Amino acid sequence: MPDHDGLMRIFWPLDLSRNNSPGIIVGWRNSGLDIFVVAILEVSDARNVENALKVGTLFRNSPHPITRIYELCGQSSIHVLGLANSPQEEVELLQIHATTRPYLRMPQISCERASTIQIIMYERPMPTRMQYISLNPISLALEDKAEIAVHAPESIDAEEEKEEMKNRAQTKHLVEKLKLHTVAKHPPSQKELALPRIVSQVNCSWELHEILHKNASLVGNRLRRSLSVSERVVESATSMRDFVIVTIWQIITLYLYPIVRRGFVIGLLCHRVAAEALLIVLEWRANPQYAALKDISATAQQVEIRLQQFCYWPMQYITLRKRKDDWESVTTSHPDYIRFYNSLWLVANDVIIGIALGSYIIDNSVWVAEFIGEILDLYSVAALRRTITWLMDWPAGLKLNNELAAFLGDLFLWVIDHWSSLVTALQPFLPHLIWFIGFSSFAGASMPIAVFSDLLSILTLHIYSFYVASARIFNWQYTILLSLFQLFRGKKHNVLRKRIDSCDYDLDQLLLGTILFTLLFFLLPTVVVFYLTFACSRMAIISLKAILDTLLACLNHFPLFALMLRIKDSRRLPGGIRFELKDTQHLTSSTASDSPAPPPTSHIYLKSVPLTFRAMFHQYFQLGQRIRKHYLSPRVLLCLATGKFVPPIHRKNLYSLQYSMLPARRARVVDMWNALTASAPTKEKKAGFESRHHNGRRFNGLNGRKH
């Protein structure tokens, strides 16, 4: 039934021919006054075209069943929508008259039942180039898992997460209450609800246009004659050639290919079993609350990421191979295609950079070992020893407690001396370690970076212990001073009720508290100086490790392939659609003299919005936000000021960016075996004379005549 508003909406391709030739307009009819133009066929009789659409003549030689296109577009058939450049011909009430001329920028369209017309011009995406449009931005990360942060039960991140979830729930509740006070929204119209279906019709338009134009010559009566002698000879020779080709191809596909394929699958499966064993070792936990090896070591986590990718690539490849069994207009596998080749590009670049880096390290292993040994001795031993000695002797004119400074300094220097002897004992093995790091570079530049990150943690273990010890001493002293301050105020902390209550103290208690407070307060600057020194050293090490982790994130997750597509062909990375209203008076300034005056018409461009660069690097912004919340939040700064231990951010949260292109649950060995050994779906034979049978008719290989 036609709509009652009198507005007719017409979707018109921008690449349709603008010549003077008459033709038949075919496409989808979404409703009475809502049509979608697919093609203009240069055929004289509309009834023949309608009949050819019903019996399937115009869909012969299609690579896949046309019903799949109908399913995608939400329609049961394609219809004749009107006539082009035939103003004298009569059409039905809901059909259109269109006039196209080379000098007309827009078609002039009229319909008897339409009081006004809205022409929406769209540019057909080419599915052979994997172009398409989408209402929602393409997702570069897998969506089979929610991004769940991992925190310790009493950690700072856990408290921040609880507070954020509480604020989010409160905001959601306020939004729901606000909806109760808004103006009632009108239910969406059928034209608004048809937008997702129209997007699918736009994506399928190019393939349908090609098939319709290829079979347009089959519409109508054609002269039939028997084949001549020469044509029969050529047909027989062609059939014999095709028979030989088909026979050879069948021998290869039925006997040789299965043997080679089975051998490759068995070899791949053996590697998959070995990878599964290594993954079990890397993910093993002695207790569910304990950390796994991959949560402690950057090297183990890098190995785990590569093994996860190796386990996922065969499944991705099988998914992409299934694209050939369907129309190219089906866009569900396009994100998988981008993720697959992006990971391949990253691994290839990682290996290329790693080979160059590893070759340099191996060729200069002695010099690199000497350089690293000097740096290690300079900054982790000598510089630290000079700093502690400086702190023991009134640093920057600050008068400290000599006895306490000497005690703490001698304690730290004693540890440094033992650490220095340990480093000296390891010096002869340093060239071999450097050679091992260079050899690991052949697995990718990310491996030596991860190994260096672990070595940095191990070789600065004494600085970490100094920070923990000084922070604990400072926190104890701060807590005692705070308790003694409450004593002066006549207050005490009620542990059971978690509040400050009044309390009457005796004179001897106040006197003892005053003595202890004075003693601890005068010792506080000495402890603070040592604590700040080691806290700054610890923050410098964390910053250096953050730089290394950022390099690992770029090597493992950088959207290189997507960035190349965004620059080369942005229509392969859709980020939505937009409608642009054009100047109607400027576009309709010239009209065709032999066509009736069209009704009031508006022209709108339907354009695809490419994915923004911010959306491409959205997860990097999330990672930066997560690091900022952990290290620069007021709660963390308060912990630093009070001497509470600030643990490093959980490796699972720091590396979640690199796992975004991997499934939450990897495929089992059995699943991989079933996927690789599953028989391919039977395809229609496309070679030789067997490919000429369509819809019960046999066509000549020379000119397509049926006989």
Automatic annotation (TrEMBL):
The keyword Membrane applies. One of its GO terms (biological process) is GPI anchor biosynthetic process. Keywords: Membrane, Transmembrane, Transmembrane helix. It holds the Pfam family Gpi1. It comes from the Eukaryota. The chain crosses the membrane at residues 243-260, 344-362, 433-452, 464-488, 509-534, 546-565. Residues 683-707 are annotated as: Disordered. Residues 683-693 have a biased composition (Basic and acidic residues). The keyword Metal-binding does not apply. This is N-acetylglucosaminyl-phosphatidylinositol biosynthetic protein gpi1. It comes from Hymenoscyphus albidus. The lineage of its organism: Eukaryota, Fungi, Dikarya, Ascomycota, Pezizomycotina.
